[in-house]
Design a protein that fits this description.
7 helices; about 190 residues; 7-stranded mixed sheet; Rossmann fold
Length: about 190
């Protein structure tokens, strides 16, 4: 399975989502490799920070663990919808578009999601950095997305705003608390079904 993580805005959580999915899937015993196409190279730095032999470089891909790779996850740079469409192409089974619950983030991906209507693979919105506010409740998010013209289905699982996600960039899967691990596993297993 090939998963592309992409969007038009920096800071939406693309690299974090790609890295967490990779860690969660590797922890579940799935063979996973990641590729960092973003010039900032956050995902590359993250994977290189993890202890060897957990991550092995194979060309432009970084393999986590020793299992045979069955899932490929690529982190794409933020770009205009047309430029991003040219980069992404049609080879991905699933495109994940992270989105924070903020109008600026929703507005920034709206035209990108419109370009992806009819995409060969599936496209899913992943709500990211949710907090305990009323605004982050599923029913309120649904109303907001609908009011802003977003028709792309979103994953059932989402990522909350958790400081341990940032810490996992240095400490890997073990740096996550149990609630965060369950949240990531839930999302990871949902997207690879």
């Amino acid at each position: 399975m090939k998963i592309g993580v992409c969007g038009t805005k920096g800071g939406s959580g693309k690299s974090t989502l790609a890295g967490l999915l990779a860690l969660g899937l590797a922890d579940a015993g799935r063979g996973v490799a990641v590729k960092d196409s973003d010039p900032q190279k956050t995902l590359t730095e993250w994977m290189e920070e993890l202890e060897s032999p957990k991550v092995k470089r194979q060309g432009e891909w970084m393999r986590l663990g020793d299992s045979e790779v069955e899932i490929f996850i690529a982190d794409f740079p933020p770009a205009s919808p047309d430029a991003l469409l040219a980069m992404v192409g049609t080879e991905w089974d699933l495109l994940l578009v992270p989105c924070r619950p903020a109008l600026a983030d929703i507005w920034s991906i709206r035209s990108w999601l419109e370009k992806l209507q009819g995409y060969n693979g599936k496209v899913r919105l992943v709500m990211n950095a949710l907090d305990n506010s009323t605004f982050s409740r599923p029913e309120n998010l649904s109303r907001l997305l609908q009011a802003e013209g977003i028709k792309t289905p979103r994953t059932k699982a989402s990522l909350s705003r958790r400081s341990c996600y940032a810490v996992s960039m240095g400490g890997g899967w073990d740096a996550l608390d149990e609630k965060a691990k369950r949240e990531v596993q839930s999302l990871a297993l949902e997207v690879v079904r």
